[in-house]
Design goal:
By secondary structure, the first copy, chain A, is an alpha/beta fold. Chain A has eleven helices and twelve strands. The first copy, chain A, has a twelve-stranded mixed β-sheet with strand order 3-4-2-1-5-12-11-6-7-10-8-9, sandwiched between helices. The longest helix of chain A is centred in the first third of the chain and has 19 residues.
């Protein structure tokens, strides 16, 4: 029997607990277990009014025996005692500390083999910072938790995927000017290795990886920039020499269309490696942000998350849409099967 | 009665003449007139085998009287005598010279009020260059032809549009590194003015213009680049002070999704101003390049074109798809109505 997926509760003042409650009520989270706080989750169940109840478990493996309409929870330890006092929709150090504790304990669970994958509900980076956690976000925190003692951090990359398209990003949260400098031979080649390894672990035998250029028309032979000739092309060649089915660099404006997969439009590629945050995310989000799933590649376990934040503006109203969390659960199930 | 739309023949060695023949055969070009060469167009009619015949006109206004299944043509003057000898699918100075002459004469026609708009079939910039024409493309050539003697060139911008989305670009054919430098206060403000004026001329009373940022998350308050704070934000403020309904800067990865217009997803904005070629073109092309239309804004006349090139690889086979040319004709008709 497979171990359950563990869902981290996220920031208690954001929509995380509410979308988790809704995902269980819909049946889409059946078999998963929440790492969080019982009082916060009970409040979320009341806020969303879905008639579900909470079951505080001793062991993750008990989740399978949990009846429908029941949210199985592992009580995270060491949480602030007055967590429920943190006001909804606001940055609060208590919520940041609790969110961090849930992530740490979820990683322990999956590394012990008691969970099969981690799905993370949204956290707020200012709340983390207020709690003295220096990681700017999930990815960096998971990377640190996944590192072997005394060894360098494992290189990771962000993949954003929906049913039609998967993109893996060479650079993410930095200015476009810095991103251009960060597009190095090593960074592109490492991204191709991570993307290839991950796609094989998803069950693709020889993943067809398209590499988008950095410049308009992929540089038009050097006329509109030479990064394709100096950096991206050689990195693709090196990856091919390692047996990776990478091709390109292709013009950024048409490669995503070519990689789009629908019943009537079979894709030419299994995934696209994009040089910048927005080249990669614009096409995934274009048809609707609610189906986008964020996957961290390169970790020694599967981690997915919904592609949105804590939505403080609607936290506590019960109106948050669980669609992206449900898509993240579905993706985690596929990737860890 | 409105004057006809004039379609320039494009590069005689590319797919231009064939897609023009197919557009007329489908009925979609009814009422338009071709500026081109009779022998080249007769060859295209034979290649596409659509049973249409050619009518060489004296005056553009005779196009309206042309029966269906007939392609009305104005014979461009001063073309190379051996134009038919230029081999299909290859760069040829004769084809470049002819393409240039057709554009020049089409502009004269529209400036004389004998045509209502220009739709340009694809040209090949190397063929233009081989013919000694120094303009790198249509846009620059039309800009020069539109300039008043002794006055500076009119500032123009490229718009790419389909039925769901319109984007106007601040920068186009240059490296991403140079594009970042070209995102100036003046360039953004001028783009907003051109976009607003054009959208009003298309019949929108107070066009809602969304401005996409340059950096991920539109700079995240300066954390990922400061162009939004230093340049783009102030340019939006200045445009608003001039009565332009501009807003932003918005995160590039979600603004296009928000501007996408379908029956079930009404758009929040009428058009998006994008800082870079690929931010703007990735979403327009994502659902299929065949419906994208390129519109040059800022000229004293309407000019549209299909969003593809000469496709030398299939020129002469009769297989080229006229869908984008047909979309360009429809757009030109709307914009010049």
């Amino acid at each position: 029997m497979t171990a359950p997926i563990v869902i981290t509760m996220g920031d208690a003042c954001g929509i995380g607990p509410e979308i988790i409650a809704k995902a269980f009520a819909s049946g889409a989270a059946q078999g998963a277990v929440v790492m969080g706080d019982a009082a916060v989750m009970r409040r979320a169940l009341a806020l969303t009014g879905q008639g579900t109840s909470l079951a505080v478990l001793e062991r993750a493996s008990d989740a399978a025996a949990c009846p429908p309409n029941c949210v199985p929870l592992l009580q995270a330890t060491g949480l602030p005692g007055d967590l429920l006092q943190a006001p909804m929709g606001q940055v609060d150090a208590r919520a940041g500390a609790a969110a961090g504790a849930c992530i740490t304990q979820a990683v322990s669970l999956v590394r012990a083999g008691e969970a099969s994958a981690i799905v993370t509900a949204p956290i707020h980076k200012e709340a983390l910072a207020a709690a003295g956690i220096t990681h700017p976000g999930h990815t960096e925190m998971l990377q640190a938790l996944a590192a072997e003692p005394g060894r360098p951090l494992p290189p990771v990359r962000m993949m954003l995927a929906n049913d039609e398209l998967r993109t893996v990003l060479v650079t993410i949260h930095m200015s476009l000017r810095r991103a251009i400098d960060a597009v190095t031979y090593e960074a592109v080649l490492e991204t191709l290795r991570i993307a290839d390894r991950a796609a094989r672990s998803f069950g693709l035998a020889s993943p067809r990886i398209a590499v988008a250029g950095l410049n308009p028309h992929a540089g038009e032979g050097g006329l509109f920039g030479d990064e394709e000739l100096r950096i991206i092309g050689p990195a693709i060649e090196a990856a091919r020499a390692e047996g990776i089915a990478a091709s390109g660099p292709y013009a950024p404006d048409t490669v995503f269309m070519r990689a789009r997969h629908t019943a009537s439009h079979p894709s030419e590629f299994d995934l696209v490696v994009a040089m910048t945050h927005d080249h990669g995310l614009i096409p995934v989000k274009y048809l609707g942000v609610e189906q986008g799933v964020n996957v961290t590649l390169g970790l020694p376990f599967v981690r997915t998350s919904p592609d949105h934040g804590t939505a403080f503006d609607i936290a506590g109203t019960g109106r948050a849409d669980p669609a992206s969390l449900i898509a993240a659960l579905r993706m985690a199930r596929q990737l860890s099967a």
